[in-house]
Amino acid sequence: MREGALQQAEFDGKGSCIRWTEAPGGEPARVYVHGLGSVSAVYHAHIAARPELAGRRSLFVDLPGHGISDRPAHFGYSLQDHADALAAALDAARLTGAELIAHSMGGAVAIVLAHRRPELVSRLVLTEANLDAFPPPTAGSSGIASYEEEAFVNGAYARVLEKAGPTWAATMRLADPRALHRSAVGLRHGSEPVMRSILQGLPIERVYLQGEFSGDLEGRDALEAAGVRVVSVPGAGHNVMFDNPDAFAAAVAGRG
């Protein structure tokens, strides 16, 4: 495998591939995982390039249906499906004990991965990850999942794209509409056990970043009692890595 080159791994037994780019460096590797309708490098490459994070092998993985990865129509796109595809990428990259830096839906996927394949994950840095099933109606995933699949693919996707903010729209337009809808439905259904319960029980270092403008994190006391370090990031909303990159990089480096 050529360092720094575009990499891929089959994830469905039918030739479909999950893809990532990576920067060479030392172990443990950092694996960056995006949220619903996003792209990993867009949200995280500027963080990985910072001096305090230099020298570590870094992978920017696009989940199935997103970015540069394949988008098979037969795939389920549940959290478990995404976690297994991510595991295929890490296996192909010959990684164990990686640090996962994961945003929003990607955080939920990372939690499920740590549960299903614990040898792959040594640390989680989660940015406003989905922890519960059936998020509030204001959540982007809930808005997408409120449509029937065919209605979303054949019209609502374009309307949602028009109403999305410029940052989200820039990457959402790279996601396959059917995959986007099924991912939103899968996120709404959550995992079994639910992500919050898994996170509280994981025996690894866990950091959870909550943007100041997003309000208080539900269940924060219970998470902290379970050993999760919850960091309230000033001056930030859902996209902490854009709103306060200094604090975000510090948390990834273990200094925040």
Describe the structure.
The protein has 256 residues and is of the alpha/beta class. Helix content is 40%, strand content 20%. It has helices spanning 40-48, 79-92, 105-116, 140-145, 149-163, 166-172, 177-189, 195-201, 220-225, 240-243, 245-253, and strands at 7-10, 17-23, 26-33, 56-62, 98-103, 121-127, 205-211, 229-233. The protein has an eight-stranded mixed β-sheet, with helices on both faces. α3 (105-116) links the parallel β5 (98-103) and β6 (121-127). The protein is globular.
List keywords for this structure.
about 260 residues, alpha/beta, eight-stranded mixed β-sheet, 8 strands, globular
Give the averaged pLDDT, no decimals: 96
Q: Give the SSE order as H and E letters.
A: EEEHEHEHEHHHHHEHEHH
The N- to C-terminal Cα distance equals 34 Å
**Computed CA radius of gyration, to the nearest angstrom:** 17 Å
Q: What is the chains' assembly state?
A: single chain
Sheet with most strands = 8 strands, mixed
The structure class reads alpha/beta
- Beta content: 15-25%
Count of discrete alpha- or pi-helical segments spanning 4 or more residues? 11
Using the alpha-carbon principal axes, give the shape.
Answer: globular
Q: Give the uncertain stretches in residue-range form.
A: none
Helix content: 25-40%
Largest beta sheet: what is the strand line-up? 1-2-4-3-5-6-7-8
Beta-strand segment tally = 8
